[in-house]
Design brief:
The protein is α/β, with parallel strands linked by helices. Helices cover about 60% and strands about 10% of the residues. The chain has helices spanning about 10-20, 25-35, 40-55, 60-70, 75-90, 90-105, 110-120, 140-165, 180-190, 220-234; strands at about 125-130, 135, 170-175, 200, 205-210. Strands 1-2-3-5-4 form a five-stranded mixed β-sheet, sandwiched between helices. The radius of gyration is 20 Å and the shape is globular.
């Protein structure tokens, strides 16, 4: 008594568990059950995608957000999560557009406001790049160590990809922030997230720059090498 056996969110979570267990048949069945009484409920695919993205399955998560938006083009939660997924996948042009769309529709969405404001800051960054890396830094820092960072990443790529037999498709994006608040917004959607030197999402790395460090500085070269290790493992 008091239990809804058709609760859509519960079945959506069952679909997530099945996906993570590589059980596609159970995943499909659970999703279909979640949609049994409302075939176009955007909440179902949004929740599945959100939970997959929390497990770093951003590509799969983005697919579910797109499906939610097919059900309801104006479903803001799916728009916001799709923006974050795309930015973490390196599909920036579309990701920034979705962030702007959420901000225009809901001026009180703090994460969307933070991202839109951050983009204005990042538009002033300088890019140092080659065929394998796109590194974005504050212009002053780009002049100081941009080429050195690129050379370090090239060494990491040649050594680690050869060691683990990995062929990377497309360039790796590395964004280095002199402001910890900007790093927090780009990485988590919110500022004031202390304790992180860098984060890797797959082909996108975000990092705090040497200018952001206080009384306990870290070696920025070690941080970038460490984060590129995650590019290989992810």
């Amino acid at each position: 008594r008091g239990v809804n056996p058709w609760h859509p969110e519960a079945w959506a979570c069952q679909a997530v568990v099945a996906h993570l267990q590589n059980d596609s048949a159970t995943e499909q069945s659970a999703r279909e059950t979640a949609l049994r009484h409302w075939k176009t409920n955007p909440r179902v695919d949004h929740l599945i995608g959100l939970k997959l993205s929390q497990k770093y399955r951003f590509a799969e998560g983005a697919v579910h957000q797109r499906q939610a938006l097919q059900f309801d083009r104006n479903y803001l939660s799916a728009q916001a999560q799709l923006a974050q997924d795309l930015l973490r996948l390196g599909e920036e042009s579309e990701g920034w557009k979705w962030a702007e769309a959420v901000h225009q529709q809901d001026g009180y969405d703090v994460a969307a406001y933070n991202l839109v404001t951050l983009r204005e800051t990042m538009d002033r960054f300088q890019t140092v790049s080659n065929a394998d890396f796109i590194v974005r830094l504050h212009p002053h820092e780009a002049a100081l160590y941009g080429r050195r960072a690129l050379a370090l990443l090239d060494r990491a790529r040649s050594q680690l990809c050869a060691k683990y037999g990995l062929t990377l498709e497309g360039p790796t994006i590395v964004e280095v922030f002199p402001s910890p608040k900007d790093f927090g917004v780009r990485t988590f959607g919110m500022p004031d997230t202390p304790g992180f030197l860098g984060v890797c999402f797959g082909r996108v790395i975000t990092a705090n720059s040497p200018a952001s460090q206080g009384g306990h500085p870290a070696n920025w070269e070690a941080v970038l090498w460490h984060e590129f290790c995650h590019v290989v493992t992810l």
